[in-house]
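Example S7 (C-alpha cells).
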C-alpha cells in the first residue's frame, strides 16, 4: 500500500526533483480569503513558494495566465515547477510586502505621504498593460470559472450580495423589484466596452512590492470584461479607504497610462465607472457577509463598516444614468441602519457632519436631534471674496486655497478648531455617542467657511481613519447655487 504524502512532503519532493533544491525547512503561510494553501520553503540560501490547491481548474487558469503574462513581459512570479496531478506547483518568492502592508508601513492613513501616492501610481501604470497587452492573444478558454464578466457573472455577484449579505443582515426588500433592478443594472454595465482582460480581484493584497517594484499575483479569476472594474476595485477597496481627492488623482493617472495604449476619454470612461464601483462593492460585501457574518472571520467583519462608508459616499456624490429604485432603497437602508454596523462592531458608528453655510440663511438644522457640536464663525478671517479675482471662485478652488495658505489668520483659526474638535471626537468615541455636528459659517458661505470645512474634513478623515467614524461633508450654499 503506497504512502499518502502530505502537501508539505510533496512540495519538498517536487523542489528536489525539478530544481535540485534541498529544502531545509517549510512553513505554511497565513491563510487569506481563498482555500489555497501557501508554503515557504527554505534551503541553499534562498526561498521559494509552494502552492497546494485541490481546485484543478483554478490551477490551470493561474498557470496558463502566468505563462502568457511572462511572455508579454508583465511583472508576475516565475513558475519554477509544477505537478498538477498532485495539485501542487512552485513559484518565485516575491517576499511578504504587499501594497497594503507597504503603505501601512508609511503611516497611512494617518498621513498620505508622497511615497504612498508614488507607489500607487507605479501600480496603476502596470494595470493597463495587463488589461490591454495582457488581454491580447490570451486563451480565455482557460478562465475560471467563466470566460467573461458577462450577465451570468454579474448576476452571480448580485445574488451573492443578496443572499450572503442582505439576507444575513436582515435587510428588507421586494424580491421581484430587486431582481428587475439587477437586470436593468446589468444592461447598463454591459453597454460598456467589455473586450479587455479583467483581473477580477485587483486589490492591494494582491500586489507584491519586491525590490521596490510592484508584482501582480492572484489573477486566476481573470476573464474578459470592462476596463472599469479593476480600477474601481483598487480605488474603492475597503481596507485602504483612500480619500476622495486621492482617488481622483489616481484615477487621472490611470487614465493617462491607459491612453498610452489606447485612446479613452475621461468623460466616456466615467459613464460606466461608478456603476462598476457599485457592483464591485456589492460583490465585496457578499464576500464580507459569507466570510464574516456566516463564517465569523474577523478580518471580513472589520471591512463591513469601511465598505458602508464607501457606499455612503457614492450615494452622496454620484448620480447613475440608470433607474434602479429598489436597489437604491437597499443601498440607503444599509447606510442608515445602526443594526448593520453593529453586526461588525459592538458600538454604533459615530457620524460626524461637517457643514459650511452663510449666516444670511441661518445655521444648519441638526437633523440628528442630538443638539451637540460646534458652530465656528469664520468672519474674523481675511475674506478673499472682497477681491475681484476670487468672487466667482470658492474655497474648493486652488487660487482661494493658495490665498488662505498665505494667511496666518486662517492657520491660527484652524489650529484652534482642530484642537477642540479632536478632543470631542475622541470623547464621543469613548462614550459611544453617535452624532456630532460641526458648522463653519461666513458671510456668503462660499470662501472661508468652505475652505475651513474642507480642511477639517481632510484632517479628521486621516486622523480617525481606523476608528468607527463616518464623516459627511456638505457645502449648503454651494449646493443652492449649483456649484
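Recovered sequence:
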Amino acid at each position: 500500500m503506497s504512502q499518502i504524502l502530505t502537501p508539505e512532503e510533496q512540495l519538498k519532493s517536487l523542489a528536489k526533483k525539478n530544481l535540485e533544491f534541498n529544502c531545509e525547512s517549510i512553513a505554511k503561510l497565513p491563510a487569506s480569503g481563498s482555500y489555497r494553501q501557501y508554503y515557504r520553503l527554505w534551503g541553499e540560501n534562498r526561498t521559494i513558494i509552494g502552492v497546494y490547491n485541490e481546485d484543478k481548474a483554478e490551477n490551470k487558469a493561474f498557470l496558463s495566465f502566468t505563462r502568457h503574462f511572462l511572455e508579454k513581459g508583465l511583472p508576475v512570479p516565475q513558475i519554477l515547477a509544477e505537478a498538477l496531478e498532485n495539485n501542487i506547483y512552485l513559484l518565485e518568492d516575491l517576499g511578504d510586502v504587499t501594497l497594503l502592508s507597504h503603505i501601512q508601513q508609511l503611516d497611512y492613513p494617518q498621513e498620505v505621504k508622497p511615497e504612498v501616492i508614488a507607489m500607487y501610481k507605479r501600480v496603476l501604470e502596470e494595470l493597463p498593460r495587463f488589461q490591454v497587452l495582457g488581454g491580447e492573444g490570451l486563451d480565455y478558454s482557460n478562465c475560471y470559472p467563466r470566460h467573461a464578466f458577462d450577465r451570468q457573472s454579474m448576476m452571480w455577484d448580485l445574488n451573492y450580495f443578496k443572499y450572503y449579505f442582505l439576507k444575513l443582515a436582515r435587510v428588507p426588500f421586494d424580491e421581484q423589484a430587486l431582481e428587475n433592478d439587477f437586470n436593468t443594472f446589468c444592461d447598463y454595465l454591459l453597454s460598456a466596452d467589455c473586450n479587455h482582460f479583467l483581473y477580477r480581484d485587483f486589490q492591494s493584497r494582491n500586489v507584491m512590492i519586491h525590490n521596490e517594484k510592484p508584482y501582480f499575483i492572484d489573477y486566476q479569476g481573470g476573464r474578459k470584461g470592462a476596463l472599469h472594474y479593476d480600477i474601481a476595485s483598487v480605488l474603492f477597496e475597503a481596507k485602504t479607504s483612500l480619500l476622495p481627492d486621492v482617488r481622483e488623482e489616481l484615477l487621472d493617472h490611470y487614465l493617462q497610462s491607459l491612453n498610452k495604449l489606447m485612446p479613452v476619454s475621461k468623460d466616456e470612461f466615467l459613464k460606466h465607472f461608478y456603476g462598476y464601483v457599485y457592483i464591485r462593492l456589492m460583490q465585496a460585501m457578499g464576500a464580507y457577509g459569507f466570510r464574516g457574518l456566516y463564517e465569523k472571520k474577523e478580518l471580513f467583519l472589520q471591512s463591513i463598516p469601511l465598505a458602508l462608508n464607501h457606499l455612503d459616499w457614492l450615494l452622496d456624490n454620484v448620480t447613475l444614468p440608470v433607474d434602479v429604485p429598489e436597489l437604491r432603497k437597499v443601498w440607503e437602508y444599509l447606510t442608515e441602519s445602526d443594526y448593520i454596523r453593529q453586526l461588525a462592531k459592538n458600538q454604533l458608528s459615530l457620524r460626524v457632519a461637517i457643514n459650511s453655510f452663510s449666516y444670511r440663511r441661518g445655521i444648519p438644522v441638526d437633523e440628528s436631534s442630538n443638539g451637540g457640536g460646534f458652530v465656528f464663525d469664520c468672519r474674523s478671517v481675511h475674506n478673499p471674496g472682497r477681491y475681484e479675482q476670487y468672487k466667482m471662485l470658492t474655497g474648493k478652488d486652488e487660487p482661494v486655497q493658495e490665498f488662505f495658505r498665505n494667511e496666518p489668520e486662517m492657520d491660527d483659526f484652524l489650529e484652534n478648531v482642530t484642537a477642540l474638535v479632536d478632543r470631542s471626537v475622541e470623547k464621543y468615541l469613548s462614550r459611544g455617542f453617535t452624532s456630532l455636528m460641526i458648522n463653519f459659517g461666513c458671510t456668503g458661505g462660499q470662501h472661508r467657511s468652505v475652505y475651513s470645512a474642507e480642511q477639517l474634513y481632510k484632517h479628521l478623515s486621516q486622523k480617525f481613519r481606523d476608528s468607527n467614524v463616518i464623516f459627511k461633508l456638505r457645502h449648503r450654499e454651494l449646493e443652492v447655487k449649483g456649484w
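Notes on this example. The chain is about 50% helix and 15% strand.
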